[in-house]
Amino acid sequence: MSEQKLSQYQETVQSVKKIAEDLGYKESDYITLLSPERELTVSLPVTMDDGSVRVYHGYRIQDNSARGPYKGGVRYHPDVEIEEVRDLALLMSLKCSVADIPYGGAKGGITVDSRELSETELERLTRKYAEKIYPVIGPEIDIPAPDMNTNAKIMGWFRDEYSKIAGVQVPAIVTGKPVEVGGSLGRNEATGLGVKTVTHLFAQSQNFVPEETRIVVQGTGNVGLISAQLLAEEGYKIIAISNIAGAVLNLNGLDVSVMDLKNGDQKNYDLLIAQSGSQEIPMEEFLFTECDILIPAALQNQIHAENADKINTKLIVEAANAPVSAEGEAILVNKGVKLLPDILCNAGGVICSYFEWVQNLQYFSWTLEEVNQKLIAKMTSAFEEVLKVQAEQKGTYREAALRIAVDKLIQAAKFKGKF
Ligand code: GLU
User: Fold this and answer.
1) pTM of the model
2) CB of 183 closer than 6 angstroms to any ligand 1 atom
3) Does domain 36-170 fall into CATH 3.40.1350.10?
4) Class level of CATH domain 189-298
5) Is 418 a residue of the active site?
6) Cβ(255)–Cβ(228) under 8 Å?
């Protein structure tokens, strides 16, 4: 009988189980981590601008609540399906645990190519989704946030729809909102600032000098673009960048300060390719560019069994969720590549979401300096903890991060009691 390939979710579950066993726990201690606590599938009828009706499908998966209310983003993407959302929800439980913020994990998604929708259609779809998942969420139950292809404006609509149904203002129902309706200063840049913080710390731990360190970044969405800009400000050389429009290489270092999120992919790409020394490279070869640090900040499963041996870098910083598969990582580790895992690297977004939520619950707002300083402190202590455990255990950085996360989740579940 041919062996069936495990889904990404099943792979993550397997690694959680293995870590729990290595930590010496019994099955009865960790069994609740191996399946989501609640799954909701909704159909979302939307009246389109031309009067026709389309039905979209959405999900909200609540993975684990041992450490606090469920927390996690909502993504809009044509490839969204339930098994992927399960994986992303479990990663959120692990991420909040590593980051040491008092949340469990959840994730939501709608199977939709949002670029094909007008703004009014997108608003109707978002409001319908908020209405349909209303019964299972709440500011002390489950707090959604932005993820791939969702942004502050969408969170603003979500906040409004939830509040309308509730009959009261509920700013803490969602994070990543516009500042004007209760969002936090710094939230848009938070994941990028977190990625920059750990990349810099990781590079320092390897005695890399910023000016001599070549970085390649995949993706110019919110995370890739801001990480690249902050790292360039620190002196690092960003030698290659890719997005949907193409891949550009410049061995002198790209001037990434010209990019702007508002520009969109094509314009940002055009601005980079126009610089002196820039050249276009084939998209299929982009990830194999020789560099010191590779930052995949786009989709999941970009580096896998079929291409990992061609990767030509010293460090990988996983800024996207699950950009490297388990098989891909095993090949990389064998080659001596060091990889810092997603549940640590991209935790800046949810850490700042936590700050936004705390500000909302107190009806008080912090300055940008206060937010950023607290964010850097949280990211730094999470990084140091992962490095410490890795040095003791001698495994990978992912195993170290999982060890910290799984241990805290099991301990929280234990103190809650079983019955
Ligand atoms: N979507 C982001 C993530 O994957 C942020 C989640 C949040 O802020 O709740 O971490």
Assistant:
1) 0.96
2) no
3) no
4) alpha beta
5) no
6) no
